[in-house]
Design goal:
elongated, 3 helices, about 15% strand, alpha+beta, Factor Xa Inhibitor
Amino acid sequence: MGKLKTKKTLIKRVKISKNGKLVKKATGSSHNKRKWSASKRFRKISESIIATEGYIKKYKKLLPGK
């Protein structure tokens, strides 16, 4: 059986913390930012979410080398 390759697109979207948790950027912050207040814009840019248990299993299968 051949060696499993990591999915490069997932590496760009997900970071693995020191404790092994998967951290990803919050959704809904890509466009239409003009109508947001400055404080909301700042919060959305810096917001990151820890992936839930169901996603962790899927992501771990796609990231065998990490």
